[in-house]
Amino acid sequence: MDRDALEVALLEAHDRNDKEALVRLYTVAGDEAELQQDIDAACFYLTHAFVFALETGAPAAAILNKRLADRGRAKLLEF
What is the pTM of this model? Predict the structure, then answer.
């Protein structure tokens, strides 16, 4: 997904309060930032994905938590 389309999709998901889409889209943004070796941006996006995953009880929360913990950005939690 190109950056402009991702930004539009994120804004639309926020407008709809679609937390499942926000988990997915922020994870995509984090993945793309990581591919660009922009670890700070990746962790920023992944943190947002993690928070929305926690709010919705999504199974992705554990994976996102581990990714952030591996980067020293979160404490590893037990799920």
Answer: 0.95
